[in-house]
Prior knowledge:
Number of strands: 13
CATH topology: Jelly Rolls
Number of helices: 5
Shape: globular
Strand content: 15-25%
Number of domains: 1
CATH class: Mainly Beta
Structural class: alpha+beta
Distance between the termini: 18 Å
CATH superfamily: q2cbj1_9rhob like domain
Amino acid sequence: MISEELIQQYERDGAVCIKGAIDPASAASVLANLDVLIDGDNDRWTTIREGGFSDRHLWPTMPWMYDFCAKSALPEIVGRLMRSQAARLYFDHTFIRDAGTAQTTPWHQDRPYWPFLGKQIASVWVALTACKKASSSLQFVRGSHAAGKVYRPIPFGNDGGSSEFLGQNKSLDLMPDIDAAPDDFELLCWDVVPGDVIVFGGEVIHGASDNAENMERRAALSIRYVGDDVIWDPRPGTDPMVNDDMVSFEPGEPPHDDKWFPNVWSAG
């Protein structure tokens, strides 16, 4: 599934779409389990969003999520795209946007939010429902990772919790206003169906529009993995979900702690 041509495309563009990467039935099973959480307890929401649901880091307590993140084809896909000899699981993040919601995902990079340094950091965005640009499929600024520029991370929506730690990143430049001059950027966006995946690096700029479809929700699961060159960097202003007090290694060392970052694929 992962050819040299596809690896080169990932390295050039910062993101690739792989059609039919997983069985649609597996995607449907994950969504069914998520719906149980959504219907059961609104306090699980990890961000305060209107018109949708978000939750994350389920794999340590939900065996079905761990199996999907660790035992499916996804770890090998991302490991090979990163040219890494191994892939370690960081966290899963669910994004469900209701039909017709005006909520958007602002343009951002992922790595500035996370306590890591390295180039082999990637997300696998799994389509759990069909979606396209009009229904809030992800968009990417093609090749934006190659500039080597890291922009200031910002909270999404009315997320007061992340505002507290992200406020320590004010020394970084603000993200350019891409929506004000879209013709200045080459944007990538794919129509996807359940089982399709989009793999993208930690420094590529991406975002998503509102869900203008009035009949269908958009549901996706983004799984974050790290590779060989990644080191622990719990600098001020990064996500404290897994922090220095919890892990068995020191800043500057690789995150080789199977409790928090299990090794879920090795090339050997």
